[in-house]
From TrEMBL:
Membrane topology type: Multi-pass membrane protein
Major facilitator superfamily (MFS) profile domain mapped to chain residues: 26-421
Location relative to the cell: Cell membrane
Parts of the chain that traverse the membrane: 60-81, 93-110, 116-137, 158-178, 184-202, 307-326, 332-351, 394-414
UniProt xrefs under Gene3D superfamilies: MFS general substrate transporter like domains (1.20.1250.20)
GO CC annotations, alphabetized: plasma membrane
Keywords tagged on the record: Cell membrane, Membrane, Transmembrane, Transmembrane helix, Transport
Highest taxon of the lineage: Bacteria
UniProt name for this protein: MFS transporter
InterPro entries per UniProt: MFS, MFS_dom, MFS_trans_sf, MFS_Transporters, Sugar_transporter_CS
Source lineage: Bacteria, Bacillati, Actinomycetota, Actinomycetes, Micrococcales
Main localisation: membrane
An example Gene Ontology molecular-function term: transmembrane transporter activity
Length: 428
């Protein structure tokens, strides 16, 4: 439908693209996304233990309902975030995402039943879908095509270092003060700071898209930019080789992240590790993931996306295999770091690959579709790993997910084109 297609006026001659040219606003958005990650990180260590110790949810499937709720709400919100940001602007969507997050710590602290925790995760998923998606889109807007991998590396590094630091901090807070309320007060502080920075300092980036679209349209057919939202969904999900390969890899990546989030703390606690050790393990994975993305995103700008993604999926598979067969802190710490490094090869590179192929006019919607599939992996991972853990135990569930992750890497190797990043740079 014509109404699905955003209208772009002529760009302002004062608008320039590039990381250096937009560095203050870019770094502000990096800081905002670190707070978005911290809002998610408040749950990574504490919530699986809360499910078992305070709400007595013994079956893994029941305990993982909060990840299912989070994954579904975030995935659906991702789909609409791109369309909303095209229609109303990036900044209003970012503000709305922070406002949705405001009740989350209150529900986590005061919830008398597990349904309150699930409701908090529905809101958290909506908030993350709006804030994280919009932060990704705004950074793509600012830098243009040549440094897209670098931009996504900074974005995802900030977010997952926020997750890691908060997971570590909440582990120690829980040890000192209990599972509630202290760990979730940290999340409340992050939400207040993120909302304040967005309202007071973040600027709209829609005009940067106009600049890039004007250049892009000059070298490609105008029809290529005039796609409805339904056409963008079909192209990103199934028709385009690179876009569809990235979408399935994103889903599988977050499938194993959902497994790690929901079951690993329970696995570690069952082996007799204390809360401090569990917090270290919960933080090591996203910390390695976050730091390494500062290198991998930029490297994929030069070396191409395809083999970074393929290698990353295979490295994740190896790490999950170690988790499945190890039994104590040392091997699990090594596996957490390896899993983080494998994820770092994949995460910013997949986002950059979507940006390489998508036309600037419908790129925000394509990112939303990709993130729909990617964060749907949380829901798939919660269901699959929960059922398998109930039936066969956590190690068997981890081994199955390791095999699925390796198969996903093989799909990328066969299906994804290798030089989309070079083609995109030449047309901009």
């Amino acid at each position: 439908m014509a109404s699905d297609i955003p209208k772009y006026d002529a760009p302002s001659p004062r608008t320039v693209l590039g990381l250096r040219e937009n560095l203050p606003q870019f770094m502000l958005l990096v800081a905002v996304n670190a707070l978005v990650g911290g809002t998610l990180g408040q749950e990574r260590t504490v919530l699986p233990l809360l499910a078992a110790q305070e709400f007595h949810l013994d079956q893994y499937t029941g305990g993982l309902t909060y990840i299912l709720a989070f994954g579904l709400s975030k995935a659906v919100t991702n789909y609409f975030a791109g369309t909303l940001s095209d229609r109303y602007g990036r900044r209003p969507v970012l503000v709305a995402g922070w406002l949705v997050a405001v009740p989350v710590p209150i529900l986590l602290i005061a919830g008398p039943s597990w349904s309150w925790i699930v409701a908090a995760n529905v809101l958290l998923g909506i908030s993350q879908g709006l804030t994280w998606s919009t932060a990704v889109i705004m950074k793509m807007d600012l830098v243009g095509s040549k440094q897209r991998g670098l931009a996504m590396g900074f974005n995802e590094a900030a977010g997952y270092l926020g997750v890691a630091g908060t997971a570590l901090a909440t582990g120690y807070l829980a040890t000192a003060y209990g599972l509630r309320p202290a760990p979730f007060l940290l999340g409340a502080a992050f939400i207040a700071l993120g909302l304040g920075l967005t309202v007071l300092a973040v600027k709209e980036t829609h005009h940067h898209v106009k600049t890039e679209a004007a250049r892009h349209v000059a070298t490609q057919s105008r029809a290529h930019g005039s796609l409805t939202t339904g056409q963008v969904f079909t192209l990103t999900s199934f028709k385009d080789r690179s876009l569809s390969a990235a979408s399935q890899a994103g889903l599988v990546n977050n499938l194993n992240d959902g497994l790690a989030w929901g079951l690993f703390p329970v696995l570690f606690a069952g082996a007799g590790l204390n809360l401090g050790q569990i917090g270290i393990l919960a933080a090591a994975y996203p910390a390695a993931w976050g730091l390494a993305q500062l290198v991998t995103g930029a490297a994929s700008d030069r070396g191409g996306r395809k083999w970074f993604i393929t290698a990353g999926m295979l490295v994740q598979s190896v790490a999950l295999g170690i988790f499945a067969f190890a039994h104590d802190f040392g091997p699990w710490l090594a596996a957490a770091i390896i899993l983080g490094l494998g994820t770092a090869l994949v995460y910013p590179t997949l986002l950059a690959a979507i940006g390489d192929v998508a036309h600037p006019i419908w790129r925000a919607r394509s990112v939303g579709v990709y993130r729909l599939w990617r964060d749907g992996g949380f829901a798939v991972g919660a269901l699959l790993s929960g059922v398998l853990a109930d039936l066969y135990g956590i190690p068997a569930a981890v081994a199955v997910v390791a095999a699925i992750t390796a198969a996903s890497g093989a799909v990328v190797a066969v299906r994804m084109r290798n030089n989309d990043h070079l083609r995109d740079a030449s047309t901009s």
